[in-house]
Amino acid sequence: MSAESSNLSNIEHRAIIKYFVKKGKTPKEIFEDMVSVLQESAPSYTMVKKWARLFQQGRESCEDDPRPGRPVTVVTEENVRKIEKLVLADQRIKLWQIAEELQISKERVGEIIHEHMNMRKISARWIPKMLTPFDKQWRLQTSKVFFQLVGDNIDEICDRIVTVDETWVRQYDPESKQESMQWTKKEERPPKKFKVQKSASKLMATIFWDSEGTRGSRTEATWEVIARSAVLQDNASVHTARVSRQALKDTGFSEIDHPPYSPDLALSDYFLFSNLKKELRDRRFVDDNQMKMAVESHFDCKEKEYFLGGLKALYTRCEKYISLEGDYIEK
C-alpha cells in the first residue's frame, strides 16, 4: 500500500476496528493487523482498545460524540479574578486543577490565562550561580570599563583582542531533542529517535583566536605585534595561575578583566564553542586525528568577518549587562 493510501482518517480507522470486532478479533489482533498494513499511520494500541470496547458494547457510530460545550459566558470577569487568585497562590498549578476547582473546561481556563491574563507557563532558567550583590557589581563595573575602552573604536579594540579557551570534543555527541525537531503534517506520527549516550572518549581542544581567525589558521607573519595585543580570557584556574599571569606579563600582553561566574561574557563560550559543537554534534569520529581534522576544518572555512562578529558581540553583551545591572543575559 502506498504512503498516500495508508493515511486514513480517524473515522476510517474506526470503521476498520468495527469490522474486525464483528469478525470476533481481539484488540491485540486488530492492532497487529492494522500495523502490518498501515505501518506508521496505524492508530495507537490504546485507541484500538478504546473503540473495540465501545463496539463490543453495542456502539454503531464511528463518529465522535457531539460535545455539548460550554457557553462563552464562562469567560467572565469573576472567573478571571478567581483564576488569577489561584495562579498567584500556586504558580505551578495545572490547568485541570483550576478546571476542577471552578467547574469549567480546561480550554476556557487556558483561554482566560493566555488571552485575558496575558500569562504563560515557562520553565526556570538555569544559571551558573546565584549572584550576590558584590558579584553583580563586579560584572557591571567590568562591563562599564570595557564599554569605555571601546568608545567609538570598536574595530580597533577588536583587532587587539586575543583570547584562548579550552573545551572537550567527543568522538560522539548526540544531537539534542531541540536540534532533531522536524516539520511533519498534523496527521503524521512523530518520528522516533533512540536515546544514545555521549561517548566516553574525548579530546581537549585549546583554541587561541582573534579577529583574524584561530591560531592554527595563521602564519607567524600575519600576527599583530604582541605589545599591542590584549588578552581576554575567563577565570579558569589555568588562566589565573601565577605562572600564567607572569608569562603574559613577560611577553608583553596586557589583560582585559573578566568577572567571575560569567560564561555569558566569555567569547569562546557564548560564540566559538557553541557553534563548533553544533556542527560536530551527531557525527561519529573513529579516533583523535579525525576529531582534530574536524575541528580544524570547521575553523578553516570561516572568513574574518565570522570571528570579528563574535568579538563585536561582546560590546552588545556588555551593553545588556549595564541595562540589567550585572544580572545574567537571557540566551
Overview of the structural elements:
This protein is of the alpha/beta class and 331 residues long. The protein folds into 3 domains: 3-56, Arc Repressor Mutant, subunit A, CATH 1.10.10; 72-116; 133-185 and 197-323, Ribonuclease H-like superfamily/Ribonuclease H (Nucleotidyltransferase, domain 5), CATH 3.30.420.10. Helix content is 48%, strand content 8%. The chain has helices spanning 3-6, 10-22, 27-38, 45-56, 77-89, 95-102, 106-116, 133-150, 154-160, 237-240, 242-251, 267-280, 288-300, 304-323; strands spanning 161-170, 202-210, 213-214, 230-231, 254-255. It has a 5-stranded mixed sheet. The protein is elongated, with a radius of gyration of 30 Å. The two termini are 47 Å apart. 17% of the residues are buried. Residues 1-5 and 217-227 have low confidence and may be disordered. It comes from Eumeta variegata. One of its GO terms (molecular function) is nucleic acid binding. Keywords: Methyltransferase, Transferase. Pfam families: HTH_48, Transposase_1.
